[in-house]
Amino acid sequence: SNDKVREQLNAFLQQAKKDGTMSRLTEKWLGATEPTEHPDYQSLTGENGTIRLAAVAENKPLIYQYQDQCTGLEMEILSLFAEAYGYRYDVDVVPFDSVIMGMATGKYDMASASLQITPERAESVNFSEPYMQFDVVIVVKNNGNQQTEKRSTLADFDNATLGIFSGSSFDALAKERFPNAQRQYYTLVPDMILAVEQGKID
Known about the structure:
Elements: H1 2-18, H2 21-29, E1 50-55, E2 58-59, E3 63-66, E4 69-71, H3 73-85, E5 88-93, H4 99-104, E6 110-112, H5 119-122, E7 161-165, H6 170-177, E8 182-186, H7 189-197
Parallel strand pairs: 1-5, 1-6, 7-8
Antiparallel strand pairs: 2-3, 3-4
Helix pairs in contact: 1-3
C-alpha cells in the first residue's frame, strides 16, 4: 500500500541522513559543477512492485530532465530508495499544478515535485519526512547601485508586478501581503529570473 511505501521511504530518509548519503548527494547536486553521473532508475528490477511516480521535472538541480530521463537530487534519492526496497518506477512527467489532484485521485502513488509542505496540501496528500529545508528569498533587479533603487521595503511593492511560481503557496501570501499588486505566473524559475532582468516583473 502507499502507507507502507511512505513508511519505508521515511525510514530510508532517516538512514540516509545518519549514514552520510544525504550529505553526499546534497554536495553532488548543489555543488559548483553540474554532475555528469545520473541516476539509472530505468534499470531497477521492481521485484516488490511498481510505483506510479508523477515527476515535475522543472526544478534543476532537484529534479529535471536530462536527455530522455529525469535526474537530479530527488530522482537520485528515489532511485536509491527503490533499489534498497525492490521497487521500480513508472514515471509520468507532469505540470506542477496537476500533481496534488493526480495524487488525491489515486492516479499516482508518489510525486517528486520539490513540494513545500503546507497544511492545505496535507489535507489531500501524505508527505514523507522533509529531506531538505530552503530559505525563501525575494529577487529584485540590481541596476548597479542599490542605494538608488526606488523600492527598498516590502511596502514599496504593494503596487508592483509580482512574478509567482504557479501553484505555489506563495500565491495566497502575495495576495494577502500585496493586495494591490499585479501577479504574473510562471512554471520555471529561470523564466522568472529572466522576467526580472527584462523588467517585465518587479
